[in-house]
Amino acid sequence: MISYTLFETPIGHAGLAWGDKGLVGVYLPEADRENARRSFLRRYPDAVEASPTPMAEAAIAGIRELLAGKPNALLEAPIDIERVPEFDAKVYEIARAIPPGETLTYGQIAEKLGDKLLARDVGAALGKNPWPIVVPCHRVTAAGGKLGGFSARGGINTKVKLLAIEGARVLEPAPPKSARAKASEAPQPSLFD
Asked: Which of 137, 152, 156, 168 is an active site residue?
């Protein structure tokens, strides 16, 4: 059985799901609690809301700390790594070792895996990361000081904001949008709305 809880952070309402073997998923904060709940339950439709276990409480405390700007690598938070393919698990293990405020490139992770040509595969694995923040995919950037992508709500702007909270030096700010582009887009809530 998968249990979940929503919790408040300094930047919004986040979600955490867990099972017998550790964390099953993390949902990044958003402004509206009920919106967070609906989005979380789309990812984990069979999850049952429950009071956090001591393991979940410790993970929540660490996430709150990190999102308040206090360095916390969240390495003590157990994740149910058996839920993901072996390649993805290796990528997540390397990403988890990146300290708050620092970054690695997709290519650097690929080299650690033994083949720099795996950079796109690294990006694909990080795009499916079920534990954002705990497995800090936001700390992985593209080569040449570019930020690369970010699949979470708010996209690259969310990545920039997470890195800024951690005090990371961000080399490429999110490009400004023209008034016409803003008007033609459907509103997309971000981490800080």
From this structure: 137
CA 91/CA 107 separation, integer angstroms: 11
CA distances for 143 relative to 62, 138, 163, angstroms: 30, 14, 16
Residue 14 near residue 26, CB atoms below 8 Å? yes
Question: Two tokens at 59?
Answer: 């993970």
For residue range 152-175, list pLDDT tens digits in order.
777 788 888 888 888 887 655 545
Say if residues 48 and 26 touch (Cβ distance below 8 Å): no
Identify the bridge partners of residue 101 per DSSP, sorted by sequence position.
Answer: none
Residues with Cβ < 8 Å from 171, sequence gap 6 or more? 141, 145, 146, 147
**pLDDT single digits (tens) 58-77:** 999 999 999 999 989 999 99
Cα–Cα dist 125/123, whole Å: 5
Amino acid occupying residue 184: S
pTM strictly above 0.85 = no
Rounded to an integer, what distance in angstroms lies between the CA atom of residue 44 and that of residue 66?
24
142 catalytic? Reply is no
